[in-house]
Amino acid sequence: MAKINQNYLQLQGSYLFAEVARRRNKFISENPNAQVISLGIGDVTRPLPEAVVKSLHDSVDEMAEANTFRGYGPEQGYEFLINAIIENDYKARGIELKTSEVFVSDGSKCDVGNIQEIFSADSIVAVQDPVYPVYVDTNVMAGRSGAFDKEKNQYSNIVYLTCNKENGFVPELPKSKVDIIYLCYPNNPTGMTLSKEELKKWVDYARSNKCVILYDSAYEAYIQEDDVPRSIYEIEGAKEVAIEFRSFSKTAGFTGTRCAYTVVPKELLAYDEDGNSVPLNDLWNRRQTTKFNGVSYITQKGAAAIYSEQGKAQIASLVDYYMTNAKIIREGVASLGIEVFGGVNAPYIWLKTPNGLGSWEFFDKLLTEANIVGTPGVGFGQAGQGYFRLTAFGSRENTEKAVERLSKLQF
């Protein structure tokens, strides 16, 4: 008799974005003439940069010739891409990394989910609330969550760090013991950031308590303000306690092309049952070489092209396009008297639902009355109840239409 992994039965309902899509599709099937604008799922709409496309074409041609064809590549990634990452994303900011500390992958979502495999099953996990659902769900799958409290909309063995208007969306340090801390900045879903001083508190806490910070900076390229840290390794001592995740998905339009990377410093240690220190770089390398055959040469050549002079200029143009959308949405929502957050250093706008509407109530109102799809804040956690996320990744035309439709709603 084949038995299932019982932990999967602890998962609550469907994945958030699958539920959003289900409701959207149901509405469209019942209202086929409705012109629905999607500002919900954070998928990009602009094409790949020209420098990337050219590099992809050139590498396909290489794969068609016997003398330049490549089969399996290095599991950790080709050095031409790793060196470009180190030189441009880290060394340019005064951060020194070794090539053995950078692991190229097919997406940050995969890495953020898979990284928990190298930690003990009884590790205590802390997450921000609201939170990107993958952080919670993958730990539920691994059996770390405990029972689900429907009233609190939380798992008993996961520590939730509330982020809301009252605390400026800056989570407090854990009041109880934790082993692993998930931080996401610029934040998804709130679009907010931490200052270097605030981030240093987390690094100091992790060093004092032998914790590991899993730092998701997938939206780093959207930071506009100079005093916002772009990497956790800008903080002294962070290499001793933090793993950083980066992605080309939103930076360079790779949501369908798939390429990202994870940094695991050599200094970073965790501990076995006897209290002996173990380098996490070695464990992650072992996991990847066993379960992952690497990102294709073609994709990595495309990713490397974003670091060329042409690529950098085209990426800057992409970011500017989406951040202009964010400004349009943010100012449009604020003009309606609705409290709005984010949208300054991130492509997400986080708004307080008006008149005490619940997150899903507001979702239904926008969908049925304005034909706009967003994401209910409560889908990201209990602290997201009464909030709502809009994304700036739509086209300019649809972004402007959506704001116009919002202005006609009665709240």
Mean pLDDT: 95
Main sheet: strands, sense, barrel: 7 strands, mixed
The count of strands amounts to 17
Indicate the CATH topology of the largest domain: Aspartate Aminotransferase, domain 2
- What is the name of the CATH superfamily of the largest domain? Type I PLP-dependent aspartate aminotransferase-like (Major domain)
Q: What oligomeric state do these chains adopt? A: single chain
- How does the helix and strand content classify structurally? alpha/beta
Low-confidence stretches: none
In the CATH hierarchy, the architecture of the largest domain is 3-Layer(aba) Sandwich
Distance between the termini: 56 Å
What is the highest CATH level, the class of the largest domain?
Alpha Beta
In which order are the strands of the major sheet placed?
2-10-9-8-7-3-6
> Beta-strand percentage?
15-25%
What is the H/E string? HEHHEHEHEEEEHEEHEEEHHHEEHEEEH
DSSP helical segment count: 12
In short:
The protein is an alpha/beta fold and 411 residues long. The chain is built from twelve helices and 17 strands. The strands form five sheets. Strands 2-10-9-8-7-3-6 form a seven-stranded mixed β-sheet, with helices on both faces. A four-stranded antiparallel β-sheet has the order 13-14-17-16. The chain has a two-stranded parallel ribbon with strand order 1-15.
